[in-house]
Design a protein that fits this description.
By secondary structure, the chain is mostly beta strands. The chain has no helices and six strands. Strands 1-2-3-6-5-4 form a six-stranded antiparallel β-barrel.
Amino acid sequence: MPLLTRPEQNIADLNKRLTIEAPSRVADGMGGFTVVWTTVASAVPAAIWPASANEAMRAGQVSQEITHRVRIRYRPVIKAGWRLSWGGRYFNVAGVVDPNMAHRWLDLLCKEAAG
């Protein structure tokens, strides 16, 4: 899609609304911890494109990994390891790219995950 390479992207292209979540460790009372997802921002305008899909046999079962590219307006706080939530689906952020280092957009390289 030409949308990915066009630096002057139109704000109207960001037609999805997603939630950005960060992991937090919470003590479980038994010496360990549980990961809890904390909402950092909600109703964030975004564009989501599927980038690739792979299937593999793991432990005798078919496992599928779907990767996506998500574009949002620039935010300096997003990190790899966070996740995005949209329409009952979750996307783990594997990488963060600032196209042309312009601080205008962020391309988030994500792997779709189970809830």
